Amino acid sequence: MALMISSPSVTLAIFVTVLLGLCTASFGSRGGRSIVGAWTDIGHVEANEEVQELGRYSVEEYNKEERASRRNDVVVGEKVGFAKVVEAKKQVVSGIKYCLKIWGTTRNGGYEMFDSVVVVKPWLHNSKQLLSFSTSRAAKHEQSSRAAEQVQVR
C-alpha cells in the first residue's frame, strides 16, 4: 500500500486534482459569482417589502431597548422613527444576516441615517434578532466634515 501512494503517477494525480480544485474555487470567486459567506447587495430596496419590514422591525426593537434602559426617565415619543431603508446587503450565515442603512426621524424632528444588523432564520417561525443599531458611521463622518468646513469658512 505504501508503494502505491509513493508512486510518481499517484502523487501526480493527487497534485493535479488539488490544483484543479484550487483553480476552480479561485475562478468561481471572480466570475461574478458570490463567495459563500460574502456580503451581497440587495437591489431596489425601496420597493422590497421584506427589506422595508426588516427596517421597521429594527427601529421598533431599538426603541423597545431604549425604553427598557430608561425605565424611570420621562421622555415623550420614540427616540427614532422609521422613514425607509435606503441600502441593504445580506450574508448567508446560520440564517440570513442583513446590513441595512435606514433613514429615520429623530425626536427633535430631524432626519438621520442609521446602520442596523438583523439576523433572520426563515426555518424558525418569525425568528428575527436585532444585533446592532447605531447612527451611521458614514453620516457621522459627513457631519464632522461639514462642521470642519464651517469652521474653516469663519
From TrEMBL:
Keywords: Protease inhibitor, Signal, Thiol protease inhibitor. The keyword rRNA processing does not apply. GO terms for molecular function: cysteine-type endopeptidase inhibitor activity. It holds the Pfam family SQAPI. The keyword Oxidoreductase does not apply. InterPro entries: Cystatin_dom, Cystatin_sf. Residues 1-28 form the signal peptide. This is Cysteine proteinase inhibitor B. Residues 34-136 form the Cystatin domain. CDD domains: CY. It comes from Senna tora. SUPFAM superfamilies: Cystatin/monellin.
